[in-house]
Design a protein that fits this description.
The protein has 239 residues and is an alpha+beta fold. The protein is 51% helix and 20% strand. It has two domains: 87 residues, Winged helix-like DNA-binding domain superfamily/Winged helix DNA-binding domain (Arc Repressor Mutant, subunit A); 116 residues, 2-Layer Sandwich (Beta Polymerase, domain 2). The protein has eleven helices and nine strands. A four-stranded mixed sheet has the order 8-7-6-9. It has a three-stranded antiparallel sheet with strand order 3-5-4.
Protein backbone atom coordinates (compact mmCIF):
# COMPACT_ATOMS: atom_id res chain seq x y z
CA UNK A 1 0.00 0.00 0.00
CA UNK A 2 1.41 3.42 -0.91
CA UNK A 3 1.68 6.16 1.79
CA UNK A 4 -1.41 8.06 0.61
CA UNK A 5 -3.59 4.93 0.53
CA UNK A 6 -2.24 4.03 3.95
CA UNK A 7 -3.04 7.49 5.32
CA UNK A 8 -6.56 7.38 3.92
CA UNK A 9 -7.15 3.97 5.43
CA UNK A 10 -6.28 5.45 8.85
CA UNK A 11 -8.98 8.07 8.46
CA UNK A 12 -7.17 10.97 6.80
CA UNK A 13 -8.12 13.19 3.86
CA UNK A 14 -5.62 14.29 1.24
CA UNK A 15 -5.99 17.91 0.20
CA UNK A 16 -5.26 19.13 -3.30
CA UNK A 17 -1.99 20.48 -1.92
CA UNK A 18 -0.87 17.04 -0.81
CA UNK A 19 -1.35 17.71 2.91
CA UNK A 20 -2.94 15.12 5.16
CA UNK A 21 -5.70 16.08 7.58
CA UNK A 22 -7.75 14.02 10.02
CA UNK A 23 -11.30 13.43 8.79
CA UNK A 24 -14.03 15.17 10.76
CA UNK A 25 -17.68 14.25 10.88
CA UNK A 26 -18.64 17.93 11.24
CA UNK A 27 -17.25 21.15 9.85
CA UNK A 28 -17.95 24.79 10.65
CA UNK A 29 -20.15 26.71 8.28
CA UNK A 30 -18.45 29.93 7.23
CA UNK A 31 -21.56 31.31 5.56
CA UNK A 32 -23.77 32.69 8.35
CA UNK A 33 -22.89 30.03 10.96
CA UNK A 34 -24.99 31.72 13.64
CA UNK A 35 -28.15 30.69 11.81
CA UNK A 36 -27.39 27.12 12.81
CA UNK A 37 -26.40 28.00 16.39
CA UNK A 38 -29.05 30.53 17.45
CA UNK A 39 -32.06 29.00 15.69
CA UNK A 40 -33.69 27.56 18.83
CA UNK A 41 -34.15 28.77 22.40
CA UNK A 42 -32.82 25.55 23.93
CA UNK A 43 -29.56 25.90 21.99
CA UNK A 44 -29.12 29.40 23.36
CA UNK A 45 -29.84 28.21 26.90
CA UNK A 46 -27.31 25.38 26.61
CA UNK A 47 -24.61 27.69 25.27
CA UNK A 48 -25.32 30.30 27.95
CA UNK A 49 -25.11 27.63 30.65
CA UNK A 50 -21.82 26.22 29.36
CA UNK A 51 -20.30 29.69 28.93
CA UNK A 52 -21.16 30.64 32.50
CA UNK A 53 -20.62 27.34 34.29
CA UNK A 54 -17.92 25.68 32.19
CA UNK A 55 -16.89 22.07 32.69
CA UNK A 56 -18.11 18.83 31.16
CA UNK A 57 -21.76 17.80 31.37
CA UNK A 58 -23.71 14.75 30.33
CA UNK A 59 -26.88 15.25 28.34
CA UNK A 60 -28.94 13.94 31.25
CA UNK A 61 -27.43 16.46 33.70
CA UNK A 62 -27.87 19.33 31.27
CA UNK A 63 -31.50 18.35 30.73
CA UNK A 64 -32.06 18.35 34.50
CA UNK A 65 -30.24 21.66 35.10
CA UNK A 66 -32.13 23.45 32.33
CA UNK A 67 -35.42 21.58 32.87
CA UNK A 68 -35.56 20.42 29.27
CA UNK A 69 -36.99 17.17 27.95
CA UNK A 70 -34.08 14.66 27.54
CA UNK A 71 -35.04 13.91 23.94
CA UNK A 72 -34.99 17.62 23.09
CA UNK A 73 -31.64 17.97 24.86
CA UNK A 74 -30.14 15.06 22.93
CA UNK A 75 -31.23 16.64 19.62
CA UNK A 76 -29.89 20.04 20.71
CA UNK A 77 -26.49 18.68 21.70
CA UNK A 78 -26.20 16.74 18.47
CA UNK A 79 -26.94 19.87 16.40
CA UNK A 80 -24.52 22.03 18.38
CA UNK A 81 -21.85 19.38 17.96
CA UNK A 82 -22.57 19.37 14.22
CA UNK A 83 -22.03 23.13 14.31
CA UNK A 84 -18.56 22.33 15.83
CA UNK A 85 -18.96 24.55 18.90
CA UNK A 86 -19.15 21.60 21.32
CA UNK A 87 -16.60 18.95 22.16
CA UNK A 88 -17.66 15.59 23.51
CA UNK A 89 -15.99 12.48 24.83
CA UNK A 90 -16.96 9.21 26.43
CA UNK A 91 -16.43 8.97 30.18
CA UNK A 92 -17.41 5.58 31.52
CA UNK A 93 -20.80 4.76 30.05
CA UNK A 94 -21.72 8.40 29.35
CA UNK A 95 -20.89 11.01 26.78
CA UNK A 96 -20.01 14.39 28.26
CA UNK A 97 -20.13 17.73 26.46
CA UNK A 98 -18.21 20.96 26.84
CA UNK A 99 -17.57 24.10 24.83
CA UNK A 100 -14.94 23.81 22.12
CA UNK A 101 -12.82 26.48 23.80
CA UNK A 102 -10.33 26.87 20.95
CA UNK A 103 -13.07 27.40 18.39
CA UNK A 104 -13.28 30.81 16.71
CA UNK A 105 -17.03 31.19 17.30
CA UNK A 106 -16.68 30.30 20.99
CA UNK A 107 -13.79 32.69 21.61
CA UNK A 108 -14.89 35.62 19.49
CA UNK A 109 -18.70 35.49 19.63
CA UNK A 110 -20.30 33.16 22.16
CA UNK A 111 -18.27 33.93 25.28
CA UNK A 112 -18.27 37.73 24.68
CA UNK A 113 -22.00 37.89 23.91
CA UNK A 114 -23.05 35.93 27.01
CA UNK A 115 -20.60 37.92 29.14
CA UNK A 116 -22.15 41.18 27.95
CA UNK A 117 -25.65 39.77 28.44
CA UNK A 118 -24.85 39.02 32.08
CA UNK A 119 -23.73 42.62 32.61
CA UNK A 120 -27.00 44.21 31.49
CA UNK A 121 -28.06 45.33 34.98
CA UNK A 122 -24.57 46.68 35.66
CA UNK A 123 -24.90 48.77 32.50
CA UNK A 124 -28.17 50.20 33.81
CA UNK A 125 -26.36 51.27 36.99
CA UNK A 126 -23.57 52.91 34.97
CA UNK A 127 -26.06 54.90 32.87
CA UNK A 128 -28.02 56.03 35.92
CA UNK A 129 -24.83 57.25 37.58
CA UNK A 130 -23.96 59.16 34.43
CA UNK A 131 -27.45 60.68 34.34
CA UNK A 132 -27.10 61.98 37.90
CA UNK A 133 -23.48 63.05 37.77
CA UNK A 134 -21.09 63.22 40.75
CA UNK A 135 -22.82 66.14 42.47
CA UNK A 136 -26.28 64.55 42.65
CA UNK A 137 -24.84 61.15 43.53
CA UNK A 138 -23.65 62.61 46.82
CA UNK A 139 -27.28 63.09 47.81
CA UNK A 140 -28.18 59.46 47.07
CA UNK A 141 -28.02 56.85 49.84
CA UNK A 142 -28.97 53.74 47.88
CA UNK A 143 -30.41 52.72 44.51
CA UNK A 144 -32.12 49.36 43.99
CA UNK A 145 -33.72 47.55 41.07
CA UNK A 146 -37.04 45.90 41.93
CA UNK A 147 -40.16 44.57 40.24
CA UNK A 148 -40.38 41.96 37.49
CA UNK A 149 -36.85 42.54 36.19
CA UNK A 150 -35.34 41.98 39.65
CA UNK A 151 -37.53 38.86 40.06
CA UNK A 152 -36.47 37.61 36.59
CA UNK A 153 -40.11 37.49 35.54
CA UNK A 154 -40.01 40.32 33.07
CA UNK A 155 -42.30 40.62 30.06
CA UNK A 156 -41.75 42.59 26.84
CA UNK A 157 -43.69 45.50 28.37
CA UNK A 158 -41.89 45.47 31.74
CA UNK A 159 -40.49 48.74 33.05
CA UNK A 160 -37.15 49.18 34.77
CA UNK A 161 -38.44 49.78 38.29
CA UNK A 162 -35.74 51.58 40.27
CA UNK A 163 -36.01 52.86 43.85
CA UNK A 164 -33.83 55.85 44.77
CA UNK A 165 -33.42 56.74 48.45
CA UNK A 166 -32.04 60.22 48.92
CA UNK A 167 -30.97 62.35 51.86
CA UNK A 168 -33.35 65.30 51.62
CA UNK A 169 -36.42 66.74 49.84
CA UNK A 170 -34.07 69.02 47.89
CA UNK A 171 -32.05 66.03 46.67
CA UNK A 172 -35.31 64.28 45.77
CA UNK A 173 -36.38 67.13 43.49
CA UNK A 174 -32.97 67.30 41.84
CA UNK A 175 -32.79 63.55 41.20
CA UNK A 176 -36.32 63.47 39.77
CA UNK A 177 -35.47 66.36 37.43
CA UNK A 178 -32.24 64.72 36.21
CA UNK A 179 -33.98 61.40 35.57
CA UNK A 180 -36.79 63.10 33.64
CA UNK A 181 -34.17 64.73 31.42
CA UNK A 182 -32.46 61.41 30.67
CA UNK A 183 -35.57 59.23 30.43
CA UNK A 184 -35.66 59.15 26.62
CA UNK A 185 -31.94 58.34 26.28
CA UNK A 186 -32.28 55.47 28.76
CA UNK A 187 -35.30 54.18 26.85
CA UNK A 188 -33.31 54.14 23.59
CA UNK A 189 -30.35 52.46 25.28
CA UNK A 190 -32.19 49.55 26.90
CA UNK A 191 -35.58 49.44 25.19
CA UNK A 192 -37.36 49.52 28.55
CA UNK A 193 -39.11 52.47 30.08
CA UNK A 194 -37.47 53.70 33.29
CA UNK A 195 -39.91 53.90 36.22
CA UNK A 196 -38.02 55.72 38.98
CA UNK A 197 -39.47 55.80 42.50
CA UNK A 198 -37.65 58.51 44.44
CA UNK A 199 -38.06 58.76 48.20
CA UNK A 200 -36.19 60.46 50.97
CA UNK A 201 -34.77 58.05 53.53
CA UNK A 202 -37.27 59.40 56.06
CA UNK A 203 -40.22 58.73 53.73
CA UNK A 204 -38.99 55.22 52.98
CA UNK A 205 -38.49 54.37 56.66
CA UNK A 206 -41.98 55.59 57.50
CA UNK A 207 -43.55 53.57 54.67
CA UNK A 208 -41.61 50.47 55.67
CA UNK A 209 -42.69 50.76 59.31
CA UNK A 210 -46.31 51.19 58.25
CA UNK A 211 -46.04 47.99 56.20
CA UNK A 212 -46.76 49.65 52.86
CA UNK A 213 -47.25 46.75 50.43
CA UNK A 214 -44.89 48.05 47.75
CA UNK A 215 -42.01 48.32 50.20
CA UNK A 216 -42.67 44.81 51.46
CA UNK A 217 -42.49 43.53 47.88
CA UNK A 218 -39.29 45.47 47.19
CA UNK A 219 -37.67 43.98 50.29
CA UNK A 220 -38.53 40.46 49.13
CA UNK A 221 -36.85 40.81 45.74
CA UNK A 222 -34.43 43.57 44.81
CA UNK A 223 -30.91 44.15 43.60
CA UNK A 224 -28.73 46.96 44.91
CA UNK A 225 -27.29 48.95 42.01
CA UNK A 226 -25.16 51.05 44.31
CA UNK A 227 -25.16 52.38 47.85
CA UNK A 228 -25.98 50.86 51.22
CA UNK A 229 -28.02 47.65 51.68
CA UNK A 230 -31.72 48.48 51.58
CA UNK A 231 -32.56 46.60 54.78
CA UNK A 232 -29.87 48.51 56.65
CA UNK A 233 -31.23 51.87 55.50
CA UNK A 234 -34.85 51.01 56.33
CA UNK A 235 -33.96 49.69 59.78
CA UNK A 236 -31.93 52.79 60.61
CA UNK A 237 -33.00 55.54 62.93
CA UNK A 238 -35.73 57.81 61.54
CA UNK A 239 -34.14 60.82 59.90
Amino acid sequence: MNPIDSAMSLGYDVSIYGRLSRKRDNTMRFDQPLNQIFDHEVKIRVLRFLCRRGGQWSGRRLAAELQVNPTTMHKTLRELREATVLDFQKVGNNFVYSLADDHYLVQEILRPVFRQEAHGVAQVAIRLRQALGPALQRGVVTVVLYGSVARRQERPTSDLDVLFLVRSPHAKRQVQHALNQHWEALMRRFGNSLAPYVNTVHEAQQKSRRGVALFQEILKAHQVLWGRPLEEVLRGRPT
